[in-house]
Give the backbone structure.
Amino acid sequence: ASPGTAEAIEAVAEHLSKPDKSDEFRFLEAQAASAYWQALAPTPIRFARRDEPKVPEYWKTFGTRVSPLTGSPRNAATPSQAMLNYLYAMLEAETRIACLTVGLDPGLGVLHADLRARDSLACDLMEAVRPDVDRWLIGFLRDRVFRADDFFETKTGQCRVLPPVTHELAETLSDWQRAIAPVAEWTARTLLEMG
């Protein structure tokens, strides 16, 4: 990340002790996230030399976190974003299990609004482990050379991750399980002490 990015995130962090409404926290988080994802966007994705001509230019960098297909991270249009979504989905599943294990309702969110189709508390808690997922993926992208057929682009432009890359990503599941367990335990203990 560039020094400008770090300074932008630090400036946002200075305001975290001041807001007294969750909307203000969300706004500050969105500002920091924007700087963070912009810094990661040019990260290169390496493809085998023989596959370079087959690969769309926009697949060759980490790219924007917002999919042009949805205006959100859903339905990623680049390999790196598709891999990140895959990893985050595994983390969310492990977070939901961790919540249930310690007696928390994964659907009752604190910062994420309660929605019928979302485990909002799981989304809240997994924020603590997202940096670990991001760090792992950046290392994976740095060390790995991909093939064009590691990914598939649907007719709508959505990028899908294919085996064997999906298998490599799935091998990280125990890492996220170990990382989220203490977060769920701490949350349960803290809520119990407050009650």
Observations:
- DSSP finds seven helices and two strands in the chain.
- The first helix runs from residue 3 to 14.
- Residues 102 and 185 are 6 Å apart (CA to CA).
